[in-house]
Amino acid sequence: MFNALSGRLQKILGGFRSRARLNAAEIDSGLREIRIALLEADVNLKVARGFVARLKDRLAGETVGRALTPAQTIIKLVHEEMVGVLGGEEAAQLAATSYAGRFSPMMLVGLQGSGKTTTAGKLALRFKGEGQKPLLVALDLKRPAAVEQVSIIAEQIGVAAYSGTATTPVELAREALINARKEGFSPVLLDTAGRLQIDTELMDELTAVRQLVEPVEVFLVADAMTGQEAVNIARAFNDKVALTGIILSKFDSDTRGGAALSIRETVGVPIRFVGTGEKPDEIEPFFPERWAGRILGMGDVVTLIEKVEESIEEKDAEAIAHRLAKERFTLEDFMNVMEQTQKMGPLSQMLKLLPGFKLNDEQIALGERELVRVKAIVRSMTPQERRDPGVLNAGRRRRIAMGSGNTVQDINRFMRQFKEMQKMMKHLKKGKLPFGKMFGMG
Question: Which homologous superfamily is 304-438 in?
């Protein structure tokens, strides 16, 4: 997700930070580098030129405030322009849209292989988690096993799927809507047919379904990895069926991000969701300001907090807080926190949400392996040893080392680290621990 672009832009902007003053030549050189970085990320040429031109105009008219250095001013303006290109405040409001309390038919359109059916399931699971009663409907009556695929996904995530007797997509959509109103289902997610390429027959079919259904949303599901081709596909679908939003699938695998940075400005349709992995729950609303922050290395603490709230059970959080109040953070608490945190996703994704956290892939991989090693150590302990590490004499430490595949020195080092963590937790309870130090940045 924007890995290459993020690295380039952070390096360019980092170069400004070392200078107390910037002359016109230095600014022009930096802007030229930014334009090249955007083009190398497969951003549309017109979008890249417009981005840099607006940035240059704003820099020309910008007065550097007392609180900001010239470099900070440039970084601030780059961030604001990035937010605008990704959709701005309008896209942020759409990302927070709630469909509760109203009948909400939705069409998912796109080419074959773009991930429509998988995305329909992800949306259904998301709406279910919000307390709604979604219904999945397969309108692709030509692709072999398309209806069965939707039924299997629905069963896996615990939502309903409709399979009627109609022989055309329009009639099946009519049946499904009647059934949904009768049984109280909403949103109704209509997984339409796809083709290997856009053709008249497909567009006529989608137009007919749209006229009948009058959907609240028409989402194009596009493969983020296709770059500028995704932009061309979005333009073609928008011309025929008037899209309300775009969902970029395989967003986690797109290292360049050209489609995300081009679609809003070239097609005029906002990105609404992004697929961030293969699991049914790995889909996120698209908030431009948060993603601009990630691209520029500013982190995304809001999303991190949301993931923590979703992943950590309230009773577990309360129990840990209670023991912290009594200054009794044990190895059992530590193990619980680790297991709950891993539910949030891969360590690499979590670290990217922290501002200022710059680790390369090798360092992140080492961190992943360290987590596995530490879990093996704690799991080799008895319940008593986890609750009261003070009983760990030499014999017990040898046993734990053998059981976890480590050396006694490894056990001793881990126990020293754990004691340091207990001290940090006491400071955290008293409100004395800086955020940066908590994550090893202090």
Answer: Signal recognition particle, SRP54 subunit, M-domain (1.10.260.30)
